[in-house]
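We keep the chain:
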Amino acid sequence: MPEPARQRADALKNREAILQVAHDALTESPDASLNSIAKRAGVGPGTLYRHFPTREALLLEVHQHSIDRLTHAVTKTLATQPPLEAFKSWFTTLTSYVRIKHGLGEALHSAAAQDVVSASWPPVTAAVQQLLDACVDAGEMRAGIDPVDVIMLLSCLWRTPDTPEGTAQVDRLLDLAIDGFRPNQL
């Protein structure tokens, strides 16, 4: 019989593999089946259902997992890129995550889903504030910009098509918004 610690490590590894594969599969197609996700993750359907007993449970966890990864990535992004580039790349990544969420349509409209989506606002707002602070410190943006206003303004990004033209439009929209965030020049 395997040791309990080993079982837990394997279970965590399986859970992470399922979440990553589910993220990728749902990016490709919001209709990806749970069985196809289990197969791509290298686990049996029983393992997937043990971790995520319903499709909604998996979708909610993928959403939460994506938000957690995104918000925790701010510090690393700022350490590897100048603040303004970090701001742009972070919002580009957020755009892809939100597109996935919107592609799931009704799956994220239950009361439980709304609780999970609502719970993502504080960490996302804090991440945007961290990016804004770094940009202010670098002299790239003016102080006093509300992070919720930035999120609301830039929500237009995830309405762009997921095409090369849409990517170019995201870049243009980010540049327009950033121009408005710059320090006032007299």
User: Anything to note?
Assistant: The chain has two domains: 1-53, 59-186. The mean pLDDT is 87.
